[in-house]
Specification:
The complex is a heterodimer of chains A (about 270) and B (about 270). Chain A is mainly alpha-helical and about 270 residues long. Chain A has two domains: about 15-45; about 75-270, MetI-like fold (Orthogonal Bundle). Chain A has 13 helices and no strands. Chain A is globular and about 75 Å long. The two termini of chain A are about 45 Å apart. By secondary structure, chain B is an alpha/beta fold. Chain B is about 35% helix and about 20% strand. In chain B, strands 6-7-8-3-9-10 form a six-stranded mixed beta sheet, sandwiched between helices. In chain B, strands 2-1-4-5 form a four-stranded antiparallel beta sheet, covered by helices on one side. In chain B, helix 2 crosses helix 3 (about 110-125), helix 2 packs parallel to helix 4 (about 140-150) and helix 6 (about 195-205) runs antiparallel to helix 8. The longest helix of chain B has 27 residues, at about 240-265. Chain B is globular, with a radius of gyration of 19 Å. The chains are: A mainly alpha (about 270), B alpha/beta (about 270). At the A-B interface, helix 9 and helix 10 of A face strand 6 and helix 2 of B.
């Protein structure tokens, strides 16, 4: 082996080859599905409890077929998505307003700090029954649960971003002639938006989860309802059908938000995105 | 004609939360005449940056008066240009938008803003990067953007707080020469803070040496080197070395004292 050989063509590590990684990822998924199917057929994984891909895949297809006996799937998706979007928007808006106010007003922040910490310590999902009693089984209770989940994420992100904003930026724009309003709109709010965008995928995910869980506990439409109904009939295939559908929707939502995040972070250095 | 900048008997006490208050600068008297380039040198922690923040009105003096052209400084001054040591550009704004800020704040229309910003982008060599974001630029380019951002409203006073200390030596020399060129015919007063004696002499008409904190003015030296200067050559000019030696003998004691103090507070 000569020195020139070792200096020759540098090998690209497998982890850097995109096609290889993609194939590997697809392989892992296919293996998982095949194992589930195989264990089910071999009787090692009781299909009564765990269903099987070859059972729930046709079920999902049936839901989307026109005139399905299981109710309108598009209605369920629309209901869940409406709840998610409303919970996300209202929670974000409230979190932004309160986070901004607390960061700008020290006394206000100190006064409310213990109460907010207490609320944040409550596992939010136990509030679902409370909201269903208070707001009924329709849209409002689902949105309310989503709001309590999203609010705290956005609140903490905004609060930290506004409080820790680089004083040099503020001083600089003030010397350049910025009034209070200009400081807010040119420095503080952009800093807050940047933090909100960074937590966008987390908070939207929570809004989605909140909607589904609240539907599961008490509602008359939505994907969570669909799962609860299937469960009531000991129909594990229906349950898994619903879960897989939810997972696919969550994936879709996440890639959409990833796109939004990328578009609105053009000004950030790559490592901070 | 009144002095461009005047500090009379100015002291500043800082009261950090949960720490004892401390005196940053102590009875500083300093007058800077219109159009002069004055540098302030001193060891770290001597309150040099405090002087600039006071002149710009970012913080109030504890006692003493500060005036710009006989006008007392009571609030943030928008008639000065300020170059910060740290990056002060808005990261979410492009180069052009950053340079436009001051004009937008005073309510100019798009056309007028473009008419005044474009020549500045050309002058600091950033026209091809007008639509880039700050993180896409080199340190020197970001400094140029900041310079254009401050100068676009044509302030009579330019306050500079160790503006080039984060740059590598070559870029720094280029920036210093560019600064001298921009300043040359402008008639602006410059108050320049640095810990680098060589930089201070190379750029200035006058050198002010400060004591270790609490900062007082220890000595002032006129710099009688011919202009226009090239900062990388002026250090070989006659008179540079002797001035450097005299100022350094003043500064050295203060640097040592500041260093000893930092050792003591660390232990």
């Amino acid at each position: 082996m000569s020195a020139t050989a070792t200096l020759g063509v540098e090998r690209v590590p497998l982890a850097r080859r995109e096609w290889f990684v993609r194939t590997l990822q697809l392989g892992v998924i296919l293996f998982f599905i095949a194992a589930w199917e195989g264990l089910g057929r071999a009787g090692l994984l009781d299909p009564f409890y765990y269903s099987r891909p070859s059972l729930f895949a046709p079920r999902i297809a049936e839901w989307f077929a026109p005139g399905s006996t299981a109710g309108d799937i598009w209605l369920d998706i629309r209901v869940t998505m409406t709840e998610t979007v409303l919970g996300f928007l209202i929670g974000t808006l409230l979190g932004l307003i309160v986070g901004y106010a607390f960061a700008r007003n020290r006394l206000l922040g100190l006064a409310f700090d213990p109460l907010l910490s207490m609320f944040n310590a409550i596992p939010r999902l136990v509030l679902a029954p409370v909201f269903i009693l208070a707001f009924g089984i329709d849209l409002a209770s689902k949105v309310a649960l989503g709001v309590t989940l999203v609010f705290f994420i956005v609140f903490f992100a905004t609060f930290a971003a506004v409080r820790d904003v680089d004083q040099t930026l503020v001083d600089n724009v003030r010397i350049l002639g910025a009034r209070r309003r200009d400081v807010t709109f040119e420095v503080l709010l952009p800093a807050a938006f940047s933090a909100i965008v960074a937590s966008l995928r987390t908070s939207a995910g929570f809004a989605f989860a909140g909607a589904v869980v609240a539907e599961y506990i008490g509602s008359n439409a939505g994907l969570g309802r669909r799962i609860a109904t299937a469960e009531a009939f000991f129909d594990s295939t229906g349950v898994f059908g619903g879960i897989v559908l939810i997972a696919l929707l969550a994936l879709l939502l996440d890639s959409l938000l990833q796109f939004v995040e990328g578009r609105s972070s053009r000004w950030k250095p790559r490592r901070e995105r | 004609m009144p002095p461009s900048i005047a500090l009379r008997g100015v002291s500043k006490v800082y009261r950090p939360p949960k720490k004892p208050p401390y005196l940053a600068i102590d009875r500083v008297d300093l007058e800077v005449d219109e159009g002069r380039f004055v540098s302030v040198v001193g060891p770290s922690g001597c309150g040099k940056s405090t002087i600039l923040s006071l002149v710009a009105g970012l913080i109030p003096a504890t006692i003493g008066t500060i005036t710009i052209r006989d006008d007392p400084v009571r609030a943030v001054r928008t008639d000065v240009g300020f170059l910060f040591q740290r990056d002060a550009l808005l990261p979410w704004r492009t180069v052009r938008e950053n340079v436009s800020l001051a004009l937008r704040f005073c309510g100019l229309g798009r056309r007028e803003i473009a008419d005044r910003v474009d020549p500045w982008l050309v002058r600091v060599g950033l026209a091809p990067f007008a639509d880039n974001f700050p993180h896409e630029l080199s340190g020197g380019m970001r400094k140029r953007t900041q310079l254009a951002q401050s100068l676009v409203v044509d302030p009579s006073v330019l306050l500079m707080d160790e503006p080039f200390s984060a740059l590598d030596v070559q870029t720094r020399n280029l920036m210093e020469n560019d600064l001298l060129e921009l300043w040359g015919a402008s008639g602006k007063t410059v108050l320049f803070i640095t810990h680098d004696l060589e930089e201070a002499i190379a750029l200035s008409d006058e050198l002010v040496v400060m004591t270790a904190g609490p900062g007082r003015i220890k000595a002032r030296y006129p710099v009688r080197l011919p202009r226009p200067r090239n900062v990388s050559e002026v250090r070989f000019a006659p008179g540079f070395a002797s001035l450097y030696e005299r100022a350094w003998s003043d500064l050295r004691d203060e640097v040592l004292r500041s260093y000893e103090r930092s050792l003591r507070s660390a232990s």
